[in-house]
Amino acid sequence: MKKATAAWVRKAEADYQLAADIARGRKRFHDQQCFHCQQASEKYLKALLEELGLAIPHTHNLDALLSLLVSHHAPLGSLRRGLIYLSDFAVGTRYPGDDASKRQAAAAFRWAGRVRDLCRVLLGIRVRQRRRRSK
């Protein structure tokens, strides 16, 4: 893996871990959780672009990033719906008037996890198995 790709992965992982910490916390910061899920996904996609030697556009539109990648990594196409969903959290929830719900935050975290897992596989990074919660 290229050094620059690894830098993108570190940034993406920091956003993902922060979203995970928020999800596990007592206080629910839904807007912030959604934002960090979007950011983690964006940075993982940009890591793939970097690894492929492609230009990295200055955009938060995850569907646009997907369009650049899908011809190189066809399995990413299965994430299109989630990436479109996550794109809405890049800007809107950072300002008054567009508040994320608990349900939206949970969905954003699930999608971010799927994006993370697939990108890590495509980058050759070992994916740890998640522990299942007992019911």
3D structure, described in words:
- The protein has 135 residues and is mainly α.
- It has five helices and no strands.
- It has a single domain, classed as Four Helix Bundle (Hemerythrin (Met), subunit A), CATH 1.20.120.
- The chain is 61% helix and 0% strand.
- Helix 1 runs antiparallel to helix 2, helix 1 runs antiparallel to helix 5 and helix 2 runs parallel beside helix 5.
Average pLDDT across residues? 93
- Tell me the structural class: mainly alpha
Task: Please give the CATH class.
Answer: Mainly Alpha
Runs with pLDDT <50, length 5+? none
Q: Estimate nothing, just give the exact number of structural domains.
A: 1
Attribute tags:
135 residues, mainly alpha, Four Helix Bundle (Hemerythrin (Met), subunit A), 5 helices
Provide a quick synopsis of the model:
With 135 residues, the chain is mostly helical. It has helices at residues 3-24, 30-52, 62-69, 80-87, 102-122.
Secondary-structure map:
Elements (H helix, E strand, L loop, with lengths): L2 H22 L5 H23 L9 H8 L10 H8 L14 H21 L13
Helix pairs in contact: 1-2, 1-5, 2-3, 2-5, 4-5
